[in-house]
Every structure is written in structure tokens, then in C-alpha cells.
Design brief:
The protein is α+β, with helices and mostly antiparallel strands. Among the domains are: about 55 residues, no CATH class; about 110 residues, Tetrahydropterin Synthase, Chain A (2-Layer Sandwich). About 50% of the residues lie in helices and about 20% in strands. It contains 8 helices and 9 strands. Strand 6 and strand 7 form a beta hairpin. Helix 4 crosses helix 6. It starts with a helix and ends in a 21-residue tail after the last helix.
Length: about 280
């Protein structure tokens, strides 16, 4: 009987043991699941905003595993530079419809302002904020140029800079940093305007050629004018030395050289009856 009593006591200890602090496998599994549900993992390059029953936490989560508590959720945000390709449209100063082909919009979230963004803006920031602001900036800047100026690729860097400088402060107010609006090219959509631009380009080229010809003619006229001035100055210097005596002496020497030339023949008037030939 004593042995049977010992066996019953051992069995009783086995049954009440888990209730006194030794967890069962099922209890341990439940505890692990509860702890896992109260934690959140933020991937590399991301930030997180925690929303709990008591409200939004003021500090964002950084990458790694963090305890957020039960009944909480985390909104993840990609903090890396993000790009979107867009075909943006505008109207030139002369009324031509212009399209920016495959414009690249580069932007990123600000880690320290994730909580404010999540509270004030919410999801879909590109379609709700960035694209409308950039489109408005493109229209405003494009309207400053003629269609011909917009098609000149040399103006693209300046146009891109103006668009970025106009849109970035507006996007920045929404806790987003707009880095750049890059446009590969600008195209005039209207065929009539395209033909008009080509005609204008030809006329401008012709004007440039005429200006070049005028410049060459002006330089040639300047050279001839200087030559004439030099010749006039030489004549003025010579005029001072041409006295009547000097002129008479020069004429006499010229006649003398002519008469003594071996090829000179002097013919007398016919009434003299003979020809007189003078030789040296």
C-alpha cells in the first residue's frame, strides 16, 4: 500500500507541475507567436512609422528588428532615391504644343520627416503630390520660350534647372526632397508648328549668312579706305615738291631719254621734204 501511495503522489506532481511554472510546448509556442506579432522588421534602405492604439510614435523606426507592442502596425517607406519616367506636356510662348519625352523625375523621402509625412500626406506621394507639381512647373517654364528655342538642345540644361528650382520648394513642404527633373528632349507635337519652325530656322540661317557677307564686305571696304588714305597722304607729300621748275626739268629729262632711245624715230612735217631720223 505504501508503494501505491508513492506512485499516486508522483502522478499528482506530474499533473500539477506545468501549472506551477513549467510551461507546456503549446504555451511556449503561443508566447513566441505573441512576441513575434509585437515585433517589426525594417529592411535595409527603408524606414518605418509605428501606429499603435495610443497613436503614431514620434520617432521613425530604422532598419532592423524592433519591438512595437501588440496591436500595432508599421508603414514602411523606401528611403532610397526613386525615379519615375513621364511624358510631360506644355504650351510654348507662340502657342505650340510641346512634349517632354521620357522626362526623369528623381526624388526621395526625408528620414527625419517620415512621421510628419505619414500623418499629413499618406500613401501614393508621387501621383498625389510630385507629378502634379512637376507638371505645373513644366507648363510655367515652357511658356517662357518659343517652340524654336525649346527644340534647341542647348537650352535644355537651363530649362531643366528652372523646372527643378520651381518645383522643389513646393514638394519640400510635403516632406519630400525633389532632386532633379531631367528631360532627354523636347518635341513640338503640332506638324504645322514643326514646319513653321523649320522655315524659321532656314530664314535665320539665311540671315546669318547675309550678316557674314556684310561683315566681309565691310572689312574689304575698310582695307580699301585705308589704302586710299595712304595714297592721298603720299600724293600730298609729293605735291609739295612739284614746283614748275621741277616739273619742267622732269619733262625735259623725259624727252631727252625718249629722243636718245635706239627705238625712237622722229618724223618732221611733210613740208620739210624729208624725214629726219635721230639716233644716238
Amino acid at each position: 500500500m505504501a508503494r501505491d501511495g508513492a506512485d499516486e503522489e508522483a502522478a499528482a506532481r506530474t499533473e500539477i507541475g506545468p501549472a506551477l511554472g513549467q510551461p507546456s510546448p503549446r504555451s511556449a509556442l503561443t508566447l513566441v507567436i505573441a512576441l513575434a506579432a509585437a515585433c517589426a522588421t525594417v529592411p535595409p534602405g527603408y524606414g518605418g512609422v509605428v501606429t499603435s492604439p495610443s497613436g503614431v510614435r514620434p520617432e521613425p523606426l530604422t532598419e532592423g528588428v524592433s519591438f512595437i507592442g501588440p496591436w500595432s502596425q508599421v508603414d514602411l517607406f523606401d528611403l532610397r532615391d526613386q525615379e519615375r519616367n513621364e511624358d510631360l506636356r506644355g504650351v510654348a510662348r507662340d502657342g505650340a504644343s510641346v512634349q517632354a519625352n521620357a522626362a526623369v523625375v528623381t526624388w526621395h523621402f526625408l528620414p527625419n520627416e517620415l512621421v510628419a509625412f505619414d500623418r499629413e500626406i499618406g500613401p501614393h506621394p508621387y501621383s498625389r503630390i510630385i507629378r502634379p507639381v512637376v507638371q505645373a512647373a513644366v507648363r510655367k517654364v515652357v511658356a517662357r520660350y518659343s517652340a524654336y528655342e525649346l527644340m534647341d538642345t542647348r537650352n535644355l540644361p537651363s530649362i531643366q534647372k528652372q523646372i527643378t528650382e520651381l518645383a522643389a520648394p513646393l514638394v519640400r513642404r510635403m516632406h519630400i526632397q525633389l532632386d532633379e527633373v531631367y528631360m532627354r528632349s523636347l518635341t513640338v507635337v503640332s506638324a504645322a508648328f514643326t514646319a513653321s519652325i523649320l522655315d524659321t530656322s532656314r530664314l535665320q540661317q539665311h540671315v546669318l549668312e547675309l550678316q557674314h557677307d556684310i561683315e566681309i564686305a565691310r572689312k574689304e571696304a575698310d582695307v580699301r579706305r585705308e589704302e586710299a588714305r595712304a595714297e592721298a597722304a603720299a600724293n600730298r607729300e609729293l605735291e609739295g615738291t612739284l614746283t614748275p621748275q621741277v616739273i619742267s626739268d622732269s619733262a625735259q629729262r623725259a624727252w631727252t631719254r625718249l629722243l636718245i632711245s635706239p627705238n625712237t624715230t622722229v618724223l618732221a612735217p611733210q613740208e620739210l621734204g624729208s624725214a629726219v631720223e635721230i639716233t644716238p
